[in-house]
Amino acid sequence: MPEYKTEIRETFNKEYLKVFLKDKSRLQEVQIVLGNLPSVKNVNITANTETDLTVYPNRVYSAAEMQAEVEETLKVIFSSRLADPIIKEDVLDSLGDGTYRKIIELIYLFGKNMEKLSGLKAKFDEEGYREYFLPYLNSMSTSRTATGETFNKIGKTDILIQNQKGENEFIAECKLWTGEGAIHDALDQLFDRYVTWRDEKVALIIFNKSVKGFTAIIDKAVERLKTYPLFKRFNGMTADSCASFTFAHPSDSNKEVQIELILFDCYN
């Protein structure tokens, strides 16, 4: 038997989804993650001949659309073993480079899976994209929490990961691609409104919904970041649509900020 199986059923002319897991110990974990998906209204653990999950779609989604998102989510869960905490408590005050890279890798993995969900991603705005990532990020560690639209400094940042002490460990801003001219504005917002003196690990996540030719968009975005006043070093491409940069800290020229540019192609 595979790790999971899904099946659309119907009762009283309303469709819903059954999710069967090979490992019953992961039912509650999967229930939490699926319950945060945009297409899902609620998820119940159901005790029948075998204990499984019953998943109901949100009003604007069909059962088939929900099934597609659920299956892509399950693929991520069981391929990356999110049940095992992957972020350990650091003995240092700041977020280690290894943990930062792991967060970036997971965001990239989740985003690539989202690119396949054409029926769902077409309905997303910036808020919808942000909400897509939060359940995954919250399942990666027992000692960190990921929240959206959270106050930090003088504004609400899109994604904020904090440790149990309430200390910031990762900040990300999500933007729709509207051309390279908007990138400096996005960086201004990130650095002026959200990044404090203690914040050193950030990301700018860009979703392309409107333009053909994703390769050209990647090239334009990378080159545009190099012209930002705080730019210090281009550290290279870390994946097909991820690039690493080092910037001067906006409030202290003796400090540096690591920023990852992450782009996803959501053009239909």
Compact overview of the structure:
Strand 10 and strand 11 form a beta hairpin. The longest helix has 19 residues, at 97-115. The chain is built from seven helices and eleven strands.
Could you explain the architecture of this structure?
By secondary structure, the chain is an alpha+beta fold. It folds into two domains: 4-80, Gyrase A, domain 2, CATH 3.30.1360.10; 97-265, no CATH class. It is 32% helix and 36% strand. The protein is built from seven helices and eleven strands. Strands 5-6-7-8-11-10-9 form a seven-stranded mixed beta sheet, sandwiched between helices. The protein starts with a strand and ends with a strand. Residues 81-94 and 147-156 have low confidence and may be disordered.
